[in-house]
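[DERIVE STRUCTURE TOKENS]
===
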Amino acid sequence: MAFTDWDGNIAEIGPIYPWVGSEVAMVFVAFVFWIGWHVVQLRMENRRFNDQARALRQSGDLQKLMQSEHYE
């Protein structure tokens, strides 16, 4: 559609972006993706933390590390 003048009714122009009317669905999908990302991230971080703690416990370094901590 070519614009010959800027005077007129905006409703006659029509949608100016694709997928008009699907905003709610897109927000819902984005929210689900966001929550899913946090769940996956927490699981990965917990797995890494547990692996590191297990390795420290097996080598005996965890006890040494905890005893070397000084709280003031």
